[in-house]
Amino acid sequence: MDFDREQFDKSIDSYSDGQKKKILLAKSICEQANIYIWDEPLNYIDIFSRMQLEKLIKDYQLTMIFVEHDETFSNNIATNIINI
Description:
With 84 residues, the protein is mainly α. It has a single domain, classed as Rossmann fold (3-Layer(aba) Sandwich). It has helices spanning 17-30, 47-60, 71-77, and strands at residues 36-39, 64-67. Strands 1-2 form a two-stranded parallel sheet. Helix 2 (47-60) links the parallel strand 1 and strand 2 (64-67). It is globular. The termini are far apart.
């Protein structure tokens, strides 16, 4: 998720909101689950990390339910979309 080695020596309290979000997403993906439920996974995420996330989801064919306002991401990832 594009972390420099030095980041691992720092307290998580010093991380930006985007870095904290990437840690939560990486942790979620690392935990084996039948279904992942994410609420707005792209909040605070930069474009490079977003591209990595899309690739991971596609490569591993994760089963997910997610809420996201970014239509491009949703259209790239989702097999079914429910608009509310």
